[in-house]
Amino acid sequence: MPLPYVLLSAAVSLDGYLDDTGPERLLLSGPADFDRVDEVRASVDAVLIGAGTIRADNPRLLVYSAERRAARVASGRPEYPLKVTVSGSGELDPAAPFWHTGGAKALLTTDEGARRARALGIAADIVPLGDRIDWRAALEHLHDALGVERLMVEGGGTVHTQLLQQGLADELQLVLAPLLVGDPRAPRMFGPGAYQGGRLRLVETRRIEDVVLTRYLPTAPGTGRTVTAADRHWLALACELAELCPPSRTAFSVGAVVVASDGTELARGHSREGDDPVAHAEEAALAKTDPADPRLTGATVYSSLEPCARRASRPAPCARLILDAGVRRVVTAWREPDTFVADADGSGVLAAAGATVLVLPEYEERATAPNRHLTG
Ligand SMILES: NC(=O)c1ccc[n+]([C@@H]2O[C@H](COP(=O)([O-])OP(=O)(O)OC[C@H]3O[C@@H](n4cnc5c(N)ncnc54)[C@H](OP(=O)(O)O)[C@@H]3O)[C@@H](O)[C@H]2O)c1
């Protein structure tokens, strides 16, 4: 199921705290960064905070720039992004400014929390999600029922921690402020627990007055049939690689990436790469890996088109090469049409050998784009 693009945004002290323990909210960034946050808010469909942040900070969570609000309206969007909060208990102050400023509001809660929130008179679309809040279900609801394509999450630590640990965060926008809190009772951006093993990808650093904005993308593939935000990023990269292929009238243009379970890219490739006019993308990528690399057994292959099951140009089709490399997880955007091979079923070959194959149809259009001359 498609989910919103989830952007986690926060400012932290040099020692990693989101706030101190005083009664007032600790101001970590300055006017220029608050204006940047305002710009990001204006760009998204919804902003979300946890109930803890409403209780601690009493925020209004608005787009403050009149020009940005006008631009939203001019482009056919609501003046303000939807304001969303998450609360298991439903124990919220109905008089908080969060409910009485800006545009539409939604409260994602449990069945019990919904009863309490209704009894309290919370002025929002109250969405009961069962006995407990499952984040994937919550995000699906935002996407499917409320039309949220881009979601900015503005804390607090409990919410950020769960979204990152569950592989649901597409991007982190972290502002590092030059001050120290030093109080272990203060909230941290990320609490203890299981995170992805390897390194996130740094995509931007920007000085803004005396703070530094850093943007990171998670990199670790999901496990089994669970799709993470990183799975979508890698598949998008495979689709980009497909655009690099020398055009052909007799073969598809495909991109592929091999990624270890900790998010390390092991290799990438695309069709007809280098001087090889019949090279397939997965073949080209796997040829760059060391067959003895133990990371291959836990790796995921991302391929814009499902790996081939039969081919005329070489004895081993890509499904076989993937299995022989020890890879047991494949994410693809597009099932192979009958253009060159009837009933090609690389996914079936892989699955029959015990591999997990995931098809993310929301990327099919990008995968087919460099092949329009073949598929019409
Ligand atoms: N520096 C920054 O950029 C920044 C940004 C935002 C917040 N903050 C700070 O962060 C602190 C608040 O963080 P926090 O971790 O205490 O609170 P939080 O993450 O804002 O909210 C936690 C609350 O959200 C609800 N919740 C979250 N996940 C849930 C789940 N899976 N199921 C059910 N309910 C769930 C629960 O509400 P119920 O208790 O109602 O069940 C939980 O108590 C404040 O000090 C604030 O100032 C700083």
UniProtKB/TrEMBL annotation:
Keyword Oxidoreductase: yes
E.C. code: 3.5.4.26
Keywords assigned: NADP, Oxidoreductase
GO biological process, one term: riboflavin biosynthetic process
Pathway(s) annotated for this protein in UniProt: Cofactor biosynthesis; riboflavin biosynthesis; 5-amino-6-(D-ribitylamino)uracil from GTP: step 2/4
Family statement: In the C-terminal section; belongs to the HTP reductase family. In the N-terminal section; belongs to the cytidine and deoxycytidylate deaminase family.
Role, per record: Converts 2,5-diamino-6-(ribosylamino)-4(3h)-pyrimidinone 5'-phosphate into 5-amino-6-(ribosylamino)-2,4(1h,3h)-pyrimidinedione 5'-phosphate.
Protein name: Riboflavin biosynthesis protein RibD
Taxonomic path: Bacteria, Bacillati, Actinomycetota, Actinomycetes, Kitasatosporales
